[in-house]
């Protein structure tokens, strides 16, 4: 079969208006009248409708399109025509059609399927318009994060996945049988290594998968998730909050600029995202507690916020809110106490609007050797596991700080999803490691 | 103490010529005459010499610099002065000095230390000029790889770390105790998932840590390493080789453009890197075997190349060489056979020059369902583990291909290192998961 035209991706189709092109992809959908086939094609970069009129093609070609099934792979050539009614602004007037691979009884049809059914077929489900859009937004979020840090002179320093000791208790760690009788644990955060790297490289970030063996089945937990963690030598809490704010604004902005078609396909209310501008409101934990009680959500000082509390807090603002200075008791051992009020930590959580909850958690870290040793003891942690970490306070300690941002939580928020499982290609959860 | 000037990073110092700046960092080295202290400072972005003359500062400040120890953290202000003899082109005429954190008996001195000693102190070793340079090159390599794919419309789709079944035998897999009685295995490659993702998104890549439980102690093995793997729907072997070539040229080019000071500090012969231009020589496995025998390296058709063979082959060329069409028997089950000669596979390895060996391995994948099922049986693999993978051939199969490139191998080559362990912040090896 001879196809006429340049091989093109649907995403770039506007460049080819009025020209012949060759599209290689899959049949997403089909409807036919007696004299015209309307074939919705997808090629991974987008979707386009090919219009095949009986008058425009030979008999064989038209008949070949009569019984095309969903997800048949094909090569179609035709002429690109602008059409303002088309979702992407263009249609293809088809002239040739070649079938590459058949598809019999494709298991995901336009009808409704249960989530477990779809998750069992995740390798196919991602071909759907909605999942396709989410994964493209995810890729854009990650590219935005990396460019943000690279452009500001941060050095990417990958922290290890295999870690030697159970730094924060073993209950939520996944053990790995390493060689001989050694047990390694999968990382929960690159932060301790990040601190060492910041002392060597000044401005650093790590960005990789992290693991939590939590037996929770909520819509906000995965056992394997991606996290970006910047760490900055000589940074104060103030610097950490500003960096978090700049990052979130930059990521949302880039997605709005480059993934608007995907957001529309997800029926996301983008006006909510357009409000994500500096400055973010900043409130102390104390103020947050007062706010909760004033809004009829009883809350006692000293506890950690649950999802309903975060929703109430976030609903008071049209953009993310930074909540700082939580009680030290409910926060990690390495957080610097506020010198003016040592019962609270120089830490911050950023809560996304619209009830999506915490997306960022960070702090200034303890710089003083003696205080850090005391905190390790108070938290009943094994001091020998922290010998190398204490070296950072032995040899030229400096104030420093950073944060972690969970990628799936950000994607869930930006896409407006109900559950984290759709924000990653292959979600790992309590009862799911397949496919 | 009052410091005069803007807070600046050493990397940006040229912008501040003649102006007062504040540098925050660590003492890397010090020498003194009676009337002048020469303080080499590092701040993570670079190194600079601060010159403190007794005449220019008050008595206290000068005395404070008398006994400064290596890795003391400090804040120094002064005026930036161009000096063509300085490695970075500038020096600082110091006017104030504040000590932030002391450093007593820093364990890594300018004298020689053994590698195990240094690896035990990796969290400090990375502060040295040489390790600092390597890590900055590594970050640049990774940024270059990601930009290359992002700019070409590839969608990043992260493949899972936890995988359900031992697809290629369990001997080199790390098992993880998942919940209850489930065992998960750490991924060795994202390829199978990549293939599913390419059918959904067209052009994809994954880029994450991968794991091999190999009990080898060579300088070319890590148990945890980072790999980038692109996969392209409708790609042939020819497309795969061209993509690999473009990627390698683009990465080397970007490092040359942006990390020349680091390459010089590593005493890398950059003329060798400048030769990395298109086109790469392409030779078949058959030709490679003939070449080895002609060069006095006896080699029998059918075997896989060892490191010495790769070195001999690579030494015939001034740039990377693509070796294609290896015997199917020694390659993975999913590789498409050459239709003109089914005993060889449509695959390619790219060997780096100067004896650095294989950096890329890739292939066109089997598109036909029946052939793939036959290969799975021939390789004694458990068919049930591949049910979802076979779906990709059931529903609209297309020709496709891709490759994997090991980041630490590329960094080792570009930096001219002896061992992979220096090409990653915290190397994991047979006997090392600390720090």
Structural notes for this entry:
Chain A has 435 residues and is an alpha+beta fold. Chain A has two domains: 6-101, Nucleic acid-binding proteins (OB fold (Dihydrolipoamide Acetyltransferase, E2P)), CATH 2.40.50.140; 122-422, BirA Bifunctional Protein, domain 2, CATH 3.30.930. The first copy, chain A, is built from 13 helices and 19 strands. The longest helix of chain A has 23 residues, at 129-151. The interface between A and B is large, with 95 and 94 residues.
Show the helix and strand layout:
The structure is a homodimer of 435-residue chains.
Chain A: E1 6-7, E2 20-32, E3 36-42, E4 47-53, H1 59-64, E5 73-82, E6 90-101, H2 115-120, H3 122-125, H4 129-151, E7 155-156, E8 162-163, E9 175-177, E10 183-186, H5 191-201, E11 203-211, E12 224-233, H6 237-258, H7 260-265, H8 270-274, E13 282-284, H9 285-294, H10 307-314, E14 321-324, E15 337-338, E16 341-345, E17 347-352, E18 357-364, H11 369-378, H12 387-394, E19 400-406, H13 407-415
Parallel strand pairs in A: 1-2, 4-6, 7-11, 13-14
Antiparallel strand pairs in A: 2-3, 2-5, 3-4, 5-6, 8-10, 9-10, 11-12, 12-19, 14-17, 15-16, 17-18, 18-19
Helix pairs in contact in A: 4-6, 4-13
């Amino acid at each position: 079969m001879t196809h006429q035209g340049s091989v093109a991706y649907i995403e770039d189709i506007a460049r080819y208006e009025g020209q012949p092109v060759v599209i290689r992809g899959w049949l997403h959908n089909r409807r036919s009248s007696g004299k015209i086939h309307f074939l919705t094609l997808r090629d991974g970069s987008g979707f386009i409708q090919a219009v095949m009129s009986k008058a425009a093609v030979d008999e064989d070609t038209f008949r070949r399109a009569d019984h095309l099934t969903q997800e048949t792979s094909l090569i179609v050539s035709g002429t690109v025509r602008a059409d303002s009614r088309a979702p992407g602004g263009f249609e293809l007037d088809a002239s040739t059609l070649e079938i590459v691979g058949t598809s019999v009884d494709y298991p995901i049809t336009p009808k409704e399927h249960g989530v477990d059914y779809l998750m069992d077929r995740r390798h196919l489900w991602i071909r759907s318009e909605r999942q396709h859009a989410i994964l493209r937004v995810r890729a854009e979020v990650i590219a935005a994060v990396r460019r943000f840090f690279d452009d500001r002179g941060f050095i990417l320093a990958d922290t290890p996945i295999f870690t030697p000791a159970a730094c924060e208790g073993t209950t939520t760690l996944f053990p790995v049988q390493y060689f001989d009788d050694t047990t390694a644990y999968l990382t929960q955060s690159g932060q301790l290594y990040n601190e060492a790297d910041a002392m060597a490289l000044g401005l650093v970030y790590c960005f990789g998968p992290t693991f939590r063996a939590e037996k929770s089945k909520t819509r906000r937990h995965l056992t394997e998730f991606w996290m970006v963690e910047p760490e900055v030598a000589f940074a104060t809490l103030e610097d950490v909050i500003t960096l978090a704010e700049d990052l979130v604004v930059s990521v949302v902005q880039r997605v709005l600029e480059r993934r608007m078609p995907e957001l529309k396909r997800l029926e996301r209310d983008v006006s909510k995202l357009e409000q994500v501008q500096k400055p973010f409101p900043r409130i102390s934990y104390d103020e947050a507690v007062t706010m909760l009680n004033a809004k009829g959500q009883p809350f006692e000082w000293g506890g950690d916020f649950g999802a309903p509390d975060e929703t109430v807090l976030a609903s008071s603002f049209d953009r993310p809110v930074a909540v700082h200075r939580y009680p030290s008791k409910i926060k990690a051992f390495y957080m610097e106490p506020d010198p003016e009020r040592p019962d609270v930590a120089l830490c911050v959580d950023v809560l996304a609007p619209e009830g999506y909850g915490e997306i960022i958690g960070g702090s200034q870290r303890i710089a003083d050797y003696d205080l850090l040793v005391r905190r390790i003891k108070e938290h009943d942690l094994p001091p020998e596991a922290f010998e190398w970490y204490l070296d950072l306070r032995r040899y030229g300690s400096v104030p420093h700080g950073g944060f972690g941002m969970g990628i799936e939580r950000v994607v869930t928020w930006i896409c407006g999803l109900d559950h984290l499982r759709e924000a990653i290609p292959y979600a790992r959860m309590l009862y799911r490691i397949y496919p």
